Automatic annotation (TrEMBL):
Chain intervals with Low complexity compositional bias: 412-423
Family matches, as Pfam families: Kinesin
Organism domain of life: Eukaryota
Annotated stretches, region: Disordered: 379-436
PROSITE patterns the UniProt entry points to: KINESIN_MOTOR_1, KINESIN_MOTOR_2
Chain positions recorded as ATP binding sites: G127, P128, T129, G130, A131, G132, K133, T134
Molecular function GO terms recorded: ATP binding; microtubule binding; microtubule motor activity
One cellular component (GO) term of this entry: microtubule
GN (gene name): KIF22
Domain Kinesin motor: 43-368
Protein name (database record): Kinesin-like protein
Amino acid sequence: MAAGGSTQQRRREMAAASAAAISGAGRCRLSKIGATRRPPPARVRVAVRLRPFVDGTAGASDPPCVRGMDSCSLEIANWRNHQETLKYQFDAFYGERSTQQDIYAGSVQPILRHLLEGQNASVLAYGPTGAGKTHTMLGSPEQPGVIPRALMDLLQLTREEGAEGRPWALSVTMSYLEIYQEKVLDLLDPASGDLVIREDCRGNILIPGLSQKPISSFADFERHFLPASRNRTVGATRLNQRSSRSHAVLLVKVDQRERLAPFRQREGKLYLIDLAGSEDNRRTGNKGLRLKESGAINTSLFVLGKVVDALNQGLPRVPYRDSKLTRLLQDSLGGSAHSILIANIAPERRFYLDTVSALNFAARSKEVINRPFTNESLQPHALGPVKLSQKELLGPPEAKRARGPEEEEIGSPEPMAAPASASQKLRQCLQGRAVS
Ligand code: ADP
Ligand code: MG
């Protein structure tokens, strides 16, 4: 589990750099200012959260199989050898008494400021179904999770920083999508069908046609988020367990435009992701639809593991394009984002094997190196009229050659999205536990 020697470290850094070169080297006319300096590395941060027993009586007869040692480490029984325990160390360990505020303030809030520097950030909740991912990300009315807290803070921050008289004008937009059975579905416009993931000439990942709603207050956020969450609930009821098989991705973009010369513009993207349950469904003996869904357990989650391994081993090819989720996260894992993975685990014995496998995935993830950079360019009017050709939008031929003969896009094109329906209070959504 410990980090390898300096050679391995160098190989990892080289792999991250070459992945960035392949994905990002562009001859765009919207030049990246200051992009010549190599950005400093930032390791993916990994936190583990152990939830309490949810059935009040279980704890008494069934002691937890995980034990926290300090604020960064924990141990779990070794089922192969009962005399031994397996020990793990992470950036943070949150025990069963930790509050939503502890997790938010300790692991999420510190990365939000990077969005205002034009950098990307992402928060991923990982772990088996029932271990507390949705509780951590969404929470309840009494205990709001990462999503409402982050939105509240981010909107406040952008209001202050973008106020009249400040050098930059700021705007925030949100998109909300679900990846289910390798389909990218717009939760703000469920009628739009499977969406395509593309990459522009600057290495930015885009989903053309994905709804993007401007939000300037928390009420705006609720207005879009709540009906969208209900869209997920409908699916979950109809398809039984669908939401634990799908990845819910909330994307918040912060756009900044400098009010005076040289009229720079910056964009920071925040991904808040409630991943599908990481349990191995082959072992749990699922049948019918669930078995189909878990053909490769869940393709995206399976490839996520392969991406993490490829980055760790410094392999020349990182299989981002093998799944929708990893393609979307290309700039968040071994890419340009400040990333935090929150591995959620449960204390009950029946979760034991899934807990060990989630901890092993978390331990591998903390070796991944990102290189966050400021996504800055000149505003189009400062450069004079710029019209990008289709070819430029798709990226330079060298970059394409470097990528090999793989597809430029995943999925099928879809029309533009329609506006979202009526608004409701976040409280109702949380009460309804819209996303399981
Ligand atoms: P997942 O999204 O990983 O499938 P949930 O977030 O739905 O799991 O959690 C499963 C159950 O455990 C829910 O009833 C949830 O309210 C509860 N729960 C999860 N984490 C905690 C926690 N830290 N404190 C209290 N209850 C929790
Ligand atoms: Mg859930």
